[in-house]
Each structure stands twice: as structure tokens, then as C-alpha cells.
Write a structure and sequence with these properties.
470 residues, Outer membrane efflux proteins (OEP), 2 domains, 4 strands
Length: 470
């Protein structure tokens, strides 16, 4: 077989390092401010990805880590990452030559009615014969204009987007678990307030019943106290149902059937303390830290590369190849010199007359790139919105908690004074019931506010992209 009249290594180097048609990616410039409005609520220090540990709650740590290892949404995303990784590997392999080895063995019997059979019969030759072949084939599409390189570029961007998507899902799952866990503890705190108030109200009913038996209080006062007690009792079933709902939510987040970890999580515990989130106070850092923003940018990069893939169709596709092998009618002569055969070939494919199909494909690719650009810009703006909203929520929840804490202290004192005054006949039952109602409402709001403050901290960690390594 004749040698191919050019250096394979030189051609490979030229193809792999040459220019590719289509635009090269440039990160869009976005007019972002230098800091957040509520950046004073962030501690600008590095923090590991295990941000949930800052809540100092071992049960929360176990729940999050269990979810990260067992959550089924994460399993689906990881499978998509593996698919994207394989696609990128395939796109890279398409830039290189391909080769294959083949062989065959055939036993033929010609019909007397066929031209071959009639000739064999006329010559006195046998109509039975064997055919054995063994050979190797190599081919290569020479990527002169960068079509395959743009395909690989898009596939790599898709792979990176899938990996960032897995990071986004990991952050989302961790935040959902933390939110559900803190919500569970907040509901338990509210239930404890209600149960405590029920005991207080029950003691008041017993006191009034004694006074009624003594002829000091009227039946109307007793019935009002009983009604108030039943009203407090009626507030507990919705709280218990909500607690069950949060427990079931946590189980599913941890990739288990509802009820699996109920015994472990059901015992009441305090609402985790609210940490000050750590992160960068610069909105521009969201571009590299927020997984959803990273996903949007890599999708933009892939769309940009596919413009080059479409433009490359304006140019010819060139391929070369060679085949060597052996063919013989007897196995004993298959590898002999006389049985050797070979060929070299080249191919050209050029879409010259397609009535605007390439123009349409390029227009489609450019349209998808513009859509991806808009999606990327929107993802960045949405990220800044999330951060600002979460920071404001955290700050205001902290203020609310402090105010409610002072209110509860004052109402508890007022309630004790009112009940003592009632026992001494200074005030009526209505004053005691009003004091009870106000204290219950304020205590319930305080328990809810502490939970909401901790959940707001989770929202800030989530908005900032989780851990921050500087």
C-alpha cells in the first residue's frame, strides 16, 4: 500500500490547535453594585461547604449528611452528570482517528441457475468454495474548520453545567433539610407554649370551680374559663399535624419512607441558635459561587459553541482513511504475501445547495444563544434579589425576636399580677382571661419568630451559594 504523502503528526497538531469558526465565548459584563444593601449582616470570612454545622445541632448535622448521601433527587442529578461526562468524552474521541479490526469466514454453494454456477459447471469447477478475510480499517475526519472542536466545547460546557447543577441540588437539599428541621423545632416550641398555657388555664378553671362551690364565683365565670381552656386545647391538633408533616418531609428528603426517622427526631429540642452567615459581601462573587448562576453561564457557553458548530456546515468536511488486510479461499494461505490487500481513500462532503438550510440552522443557534444569555442575566439578577431579600428578612426577624422577647416578659409579669388580683377580688375574671390570651399569643409569636429567624439564616446561606472559600 502506498504511503500517505504528508506527516500525520503535523496534520494532527494543526487540526487540534487550529482556529475554529464561530464566536469564542466572552463572559457578559453585568452592571452589579460593589456590595449588598444588607451586607452588614454577613461576616466576610471563609467557611467550609458544611455551613449547616454553624447551627451547632448534632441532630441537624446527621439529618443533612444523611440526606446528602441518600436523597433520590441528588441521585438523579448525579446520573445526569455521568451522562454529560460520557458525552464530553465521546465528543473528544470524535476528534481523533478511529480504527477497527474485522474478519469473516464464508462457505458458498452456487446455484446452477446463477451466472456463477453456470460458469463453474461449464469449466468443470466446483460450485462450493470458501472465502476468508482479515483486515484493519482506520479513518479520520480532519477538523479543518473546527466543527468537531466546537462540538467538544459545547459538550464540555454541558458537562460543567451538569456538575454545577449537582452542586445546586446539593445546596438545595441541605437547605431544605435545615429549613424543615428548624421548622420542626419551631412547631414543637409552639406546641410546648400551648401545652403550658393549657396547664395554666386548667389550674384557673379548678380555682374558679372551687370558688363556685364556695358560692364566690358564678356559673357564668366558670363556663367562660372552661371555654377558654377548650380554646387553648383546640390549638394543639393543628400543631401536632404540622409536626407530623415536617417529620415526613425530613424522611423523604433523607431518601426514606415517611416515618423512618420519627423516633429519632420526634423528641422535642430547642430551636437551633441563629448563626451569622459567612460569605462574600460582593455581588460579583455570586457569578462563581451560586451553582444556579454557574449552570446558566455554562449553558450560555454551550449555546455559544453550537453557533460555531452550525457555521462550520458552510465549509467542506474532509476525511481520510486506509484499510489493510488479507483475503483467501483457504485458511492456510490467509496470511501469505499473495493474500495481502490494501487501500487508501479520502472523502469530501460539502453542503453547497441546501436552499437555506444552513442559514436557518445558524439562525436557530444564534437565537438559542440569545435566549441563554437572557437566562444567564436573569439568573444573576434573581440571585442578587435572593440575597437582598434573605438579608433583609434575617435582620428584621432578629429585631422582631428581641421585641417579642421583651413583650413576653412584660405580659408574663402582668398575667401573674392579674391572677393574684383576681384571687383577692380586685379584678374580674375577664381581666385574667385577657391576660392569658395576650400572653399565649405573644409567646406563640416569639416561638415562631425564633424559628423564622433561624430559617432566615438558612435562606441567606442558600442565597449566597453555601460555603465560601474566598
Amino acid at each position: 500500500m502506498r504511503a500517505i504523502p504528508f506527516s500525520f503528526a503535523a496534520l494532527a497538531s494543526a487540526v487540534l490547535t487550529g482556529c475554529a469558526v464561530g464566536p469564542d465565548y466572552q463572559r457578559p459584563e453585568l452592571p452589579l453594585t460593589t456590595s449588598y444593601i444588607g451586607s452588614n449582616a454577613i461576616v466576610a470570612v471563609a467557611m467550609p461547604d458544611t455551613w449547616w454545622r454553624t447551627f451547632s445541632d448534632p441532630k441537624l448535622d446527621r439529618a443533612v449528611e444523611r440526606a446528602l448521601s441518600q436523597n433520590l433527587d441528588l441521585a438523579q442529578v448525579q446520573a445526569r452528570v455521568e451522562q454529560a461526562r460520557a458525552a464530553a468524552q465521546l465528543a473528544g474521541a470524535n476528534l481523533l482517528p478511529s480504527g477497527e479490526v474485522s474478519g469473516s469466514a464464508e462457505r458458498m454453494h452456487s446455484s446452477m441457475k446463477s451466472p456463477t454456477g453456470e460458469i463453474s459447471h461449464a469449466l468443470g469447477a466446483s460450485r462450493n468454495y470458501s472465502d476468508y478475510t482479515l483486515g484493519a480499517l482506520a479513518s479520520w475526519e480532519i477538523d479543518l474548520f473546527g466543527r468537531l472542536r466546537r462540538v467538544r466545547e459545547a459538550a464540555i460546557a454541558d458537562e460543567q453545567a451538569a456538575e454545577a447543577g449537582a452542586g445546586a441540588m446539593r445546596l438545595s437539599v441541605a437547605a431544605e433539610v435545615a429549613d424543615a428541621y428548624i421548622g420542626l423545632r419551631g412547631l414543637q416550641a409552639r406546641l410546648a407554649v400551648s401545652e403550658g398555657q393549657e396547664q395554666t388555664q386548667a389550674r384557673l378553671v379548678e380555682l374558679i370551680r372551687q370558688r363556685f362551690d364556695e358560692g364566690v364565683s358564678s356559673d357564668r365565670e366558670l363556663q367562660r374559663a372552661v371555654a377558654a381552656l377548650e380554646g387553648v386545647r383546640a390549638s394543639t391538633p393543628p400543631l401536632r399535624a404540622a409536626i407530623d408533616g415536617q417529620l415526613n418531609r425530613l424522611d423523604v428528603l433523607m431518601g426514606s419512607q415517611a416515618g423512618t426517622y420519627r423516633i429519632e427526631l420526634l423528641p422535642p429540642a430547642v430551636v437551633p441558635r441563629t448563626p451569622t452567615p459567612s460569605g462574600s459581601p460582593m455581588p460579583t462573587d455570586l457569578l462563581r459561587r451560586r451553582p444556579d448562576v454557574v449552570v446558566a453561564e455554562h449553558q450560555l457557553m454551550a449555546a455559544n459553541a453550537r453557533i460555531g458548530t452550525a457555521i462550520a456546515e458552510y465549509y467542506p468536511h474532509v476525511s481520510i482513511g486506509a484499510a489493510v488486510g488479507f483475503a483467501s479461499m483457504a485458511t492456510s494461505e490467509l496470511l501469505s504475501r499473495d493474500a495481502s490487500q490494501g487501500q487508501a481513500f479520502s472523502g469530501l462532503r460539502w453542503r453547497l445547495f441546501d436552499f437555506g438550510r444552513i442559514d436557518a440552522e445558524v439562525a436557530i443557534a444564534r437565537g438559542r444563544e440569545r435566549a441563554a444569555l437572557a437566562a444567564y442575566r436573569n439568573a444573576v439578577l434573581k440571585a442578587t434579589e435572593d440575597v437582598e431579600t434573605a438579608l433583609s428578612r434575617l435582620t428584621q426577624r432578629g429585631i422582631e425576636t428581641k421585641i417579642l422577647d421583651r413583650q413576653v416578659v412584660a405580659l408574663r409579669t402582668a398575667r401573674e399580677q392579674t391572677q393574684l388580683a383576681y384571687q383577692n377580688g380586685v379584678v374580674g375574671l375577664i381581666d385574667v382571661l385577657d391576660a392569658d390570651r395576650e400572653l399565649l399569643a405573644a409567646s406563640d409569636r416569639l416561638a415562631a419568630a425564633k424559628s423564622e429567624e433561624a430559617r432566615a439564616s438558612v435562606a441567606v446561606f442558600r442565597a449566597l451559594g453555601g460555603g465560601w472559600n474566598g
